Fold this sequence. Notes:
The protein is mainly alpha-helical. It has a single domain (13-221), classed as Arp2/3 complex 21 kDa subunit ARPC3. Helices cover 70% and strands 2% of the residues. It contains 7 helices and 2 strands. It has a two-stranded antiparallel ribbon. Helix 1 packs across helix 4, helix 2 packs across helix 4 (79-95) and helix 3 crosses helix 4.
Amino acid sequence: MTHMHIPDGILPIWLWLAGFLVMSLVLAFSFYRVRGMDTKKKVPLLGALSAVMLVGMTLPVLPGYHINLTVVTGILMGPSLGMVAAFVTNVILSLMGHGGITVIGLNTLLVGSETVLGHLLFTLLKRLPVFWRAAVATVLTLFITTLMLVGIVAVSHLDPEVLHQGEEHGNEILNGSVSTFAWMALSLGAVGWLIEAAITGAVVRFIAQVKPDLLGHDLHRSPGRKG
């Protein structure tokens, strides 16, 4: 939901460079964390889930809405490999024209944050049935990352209207535009959150029934094993 389809040359240089810098640090830490994992099992799953995310982000489920399936990826892969999957997906998306090369860093951080938050929230919500664990984790995750998206728009100080106004009223117009964007992103985005939550909950519940070991060792203690 939070993937930015912004072409190159729009965002200020300092912002997308900062995105690449932070992304590089996060990826370096993620690769460090995965060194001791069983790559024979994880790498094929990484490729499969990256492909699923890629398809989800390019095919609309409703006009103006597409799914990310990032929370599913985070739940199955964990935070570190989830971030790697986000990077791979965003590189391919940028080569397909879904956002410029310069926004790979910011997009990876946004989408990767969804995998990290989704995994953490799913882990914390152990008292809920599996479906609702995944669904609630998805809604909370997308709400937080939408706020992150609004923050990026706010600090970028870019708005088409501002470019045509005098410096005297520029900040006033920009603040109004950001407020409007935030309201639209949260209100319209909420519909997408519910769609993604329903899909994520159904997928995770199905996996819990046919391959529960993919969801971690704590699943047998959750009351949602069957739900």
